[in-house]
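S.,

Sequence below, as promised.
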Amino acid sequence: MRHEHRPPPPRPNGYVWQSGYWRWQNGAYIWAPGLWIVARPGRHWVPGRWSQSGGVWIFVDGYWAP
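The prediction came back faster than expected:
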């Protein structure tokens, strides 16, 4: 299993780390690397995750929550 280390804190402030994840594309899993994204004031980042639904696995995208 692939493991990703967080990079050092960004240089300017105001960014959050979006972790890398495996995604399904064109019939194969590919690694989507992590990246810094601009923070949204008053919200926090909920990372994407794999979830089982009706006997199949689906990827639930990350989103900003209040």
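The chain has a mean pLDDT of 87.

Coffee later?
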